[in-house]
Write a structure and sequence with these properties.
Shape: globular
Order of helices and strands: HEEEEEEHEEEEEE
Structural class: mainly beta
Strand content: over 45%
Number of helices: 2
Distance between the termini: 36 Å
Largest sheet: 12 strands, antiparallel
């Protein structure tokens, strides 16, 4: 089991850009370094937000359209959202990853990804001066991990937008943070259904070809 966890975490983290190790855990998201407790304006889209609650705090995340953090590569759409907490120190970074063949009306779940032989993940990184927690649910290599984690990415619309492709839908999830050494659960986070939207710049649309394997009916939006 420890080997499986290591493989999954390595595969998952390979998809994600590394967080800087400066005080406050602050990545450069295409603008200036965070220096005043607030994200730089460049790269963050005020119109594409997503709200979650973590440890009693409501956090309004903003989409980061920098290609370093949000892009389509290796068959995966990766969308990144981020914000600082009210303490001005804790940084929240959320990643959604799902197949680039996803179309409007599809619901991406771990079970769907495993059945279709695809990869999909939802990851929340909570970084402060004290510690860094990775809450996640990942479907990769035919396995869902952690076992009790889950997510649902329901795509209401996927279509062309000025300079890219726009996605809109609804996210819900139960994410789990594990201790890397003991593999025991250290924290759990429930994300009730919340709307999201984002545009991947420079991407011309899903790559599904005619005759592609259809999505099972129970994986589609009702």
């Amino acid at each position: 089991m420890k080997k499986l966890l290591s493989i999954l975490l390595c595969a998952l983290l390979a998809m994600l850009p590394a967080l800087a190790e400066a005080p406050g855990g602050v990545p450069d998201m295409g603008g200036d370094t965070y220096s005043d407790g607030q994200p730089p304006r460049d790269g963050l889209s005020a119109g594409d937000g997503l709200t979650i609650e973590v440890n009693g705090e409501t956090v309004k995340l903003q989409f980061d359209d920098s290609p370093l953090y949000s892009s389509v590569q290796n068959g995966l759409v990766q969308a990144s959202y981020s914000a600082y907490g009210s303490d001005g120190d804790t940084l929240y970074v959320l990643y959604l990853l799902f197949p680039d063949t996803a179309q409007a009306g599809m619901v991406i779940t771990p079970e769907y990804a495993v059945t279709a032989g695809e990869e999909a993940s939802v990851v929340l990184i909570v970084s402060s001066r004290e510690r860094e927690l990775y809450y996640f649910c990942s479907a990769a290599a035919g396995t869902i991990y952690p076992a009790e984690s889950t997510f649902s990415i329901a795509l209401d619309s996927v279509g062309p937008a000025p300079g890219g492709t726009a996605y809109a839908g609804r996210l819900s999830a139960t994410l789990i943070a594990l201790d890397p050494s003991s593999q025991s659960e250290v924290a759990r986070l429930a994300i009730p259904e919340t709307a999201f939207s984002f545009t991947i710049a420079g991407y011309t649309g899903p790559s599904a070809a005619p005759g592609a394997t259809p999505v099972p009916e129970d994986m589609r939006k009702v």
